[in-house]
Amino acid sequence: MSRFVICINNDSNPASLILGKVYCTLPDAEAEAHNMLRVIDEDKSEPDGYLYPASMFAPIELPEVAERAMTAASD
Question: Which of 6, 38, 54, 71 suits a disulfide with 49, CB 3.0-4.6 Å?
Fold first, then answer.
């Protein structure tokens, strides 16, 4: 799965996810086996992210400079 995803559906979590926003994902093979993603969302209080259905996101590839900026912002 891509390290970055864009939110395409926030109907069940409008306070935690912004439609159209790019989010960082964290590797979680068990979650992915259940069609879930571990995402760093708007509530940055949980450094391990939260699990969301993968169907709420679309994987994207970012230019290297954007990846660095996103990674720095999530630290």
Answer: 38
Domains of the chain: total: 1
Q: How far apart are the first and last CA of the chain?
A: 20
Nearest-angstrom CA–CA distance, 65 and 11 = 31
Q: How far is CA 10 from CA 14, 27, 62, in A?
A: 5, 21, 21
Strand order in the sheet with 36-39: 50-53, 36-39, 22-26, 4-7, 57-60
The 10s digit of each residue's pLDDT in 5-58 is 999 999 998 888 999 999 999 999 999 999 999 998 877 777 788 999 999 999
Q: State the pTM of this model.
A: 0.85
CATH of the domain at 10: 2.30.30
Burial category of 32 from C-beta neighbours within 10 Å (exposed 0-12, middle 13-18, buried 19 and up) = middle
